[in-house]
Design brief:
heterodimer; A: about 110 residues; mainly beta; about 0% helix; B: about 120 residues; Immunoglobulin-like; 4-stranded antiparallel sheet; about 55% strand
Chain lengths: ~110, ~120
């Protein structure tokens, strides 16, 4: 069966520090991968998605970047965090080339920028 | 244009009473629809999905939803609420087009269950 791992679960970082959040998927090949952010009390905002190694699409211009160095690994990064980067970050995967494939989410990372 | 609307940002029910969470979509394509549940500080968990098969879909934890094309709705129901159902619920729609970025999320409905 497929599983998705996301870490760390919580993170407190000072303003201006770098960020690296990692997500890996097991049990499937060539998935679509996604990073979402959820601000407190709000819905989900798609940040990045990827259909293959090295292929990243950005949905929102911002202080963040994403990379996909391996087929089932998706990394969210920042060189210098802002206070506004605080939120709940969710990684997800779906089956490629299947328009009705549901998203499968990780357990999320709670990021607090101080 | 494609969109999804969750009509209630907050629903409060007593334990043991029915739950109704409303979702409407707008699309010129054939939709697939999903309901997710999110407990505090957790990821989203798939409750059920509609993908053009039976219009009444049964999901986990006693939830079900009915796709009504004439009403462009996909409301989530449960006959009897349990305390553990208290969470945020998201309606998600995708349309008959390939591509990784074809999912539309509702803004969520927070369900409170009163003991």
């Amino acid at each position: 069966s497929q599983t998705i791992h996301q870490w760390p679960a919580t993170l407190v970082q000072p303003v201006g520090s770098p960020l690296s959040l990692e997500c890996t998927v097991e049990g499937t090949s060539n998935p679509n991968l996604y990073w979402y952010r959820q601000a407190a009390g709000r819905g989900l905002q798609l940040l990045f998605y990827s259909v293959g190694i090295g292929q990243i699409s950005s949905e929102v211009p911002q202080n963040l970047s994403a990379s996909r160095p391996q087929d089932r690994q998706f990394i969210l990064s920042s060189k210098k965090l802002l206070l506004s980067d605080s939120g709940f970050y969710l990684c997800a995967w779906s089956v490629q080339n299947s328009y009705n494939s549901p998203l499968h989410f990780g357990n999320g990372t709670r990021l607090t920028v101080t | 244009a494609q969109s999804v609307t969750q009509l209630d940002s907050h629903v409060s029910v007593s334990e043991g009473t029915p739950v109704l969470l409303r979702c409407n979509y707008s699309s010129s394509y054939s939709p697939s629809l999903f309901w997710y549940v999110q407990h505090p500080n957790k990821g989203l968990q798939l409750l059920l999905k509609y993908t053009s098969a039976a219009t009444l879909v049964k999901g986990i934890n006693g939830f079900e939803a009915e796709f009504k094309k004439s009403e462009t709705s996909f409301h989530l129901t449960k006959p009897s609420a349990h305390m553990s159902d208290a969470a945020e619920y998201f309606c998600v729609v995708t349309f008959d087009q390939t591509g990784a970025n074809n999912l539309f999320f509702g803004t969520g409905t927070r369900l409170t269950v009163i003991p």
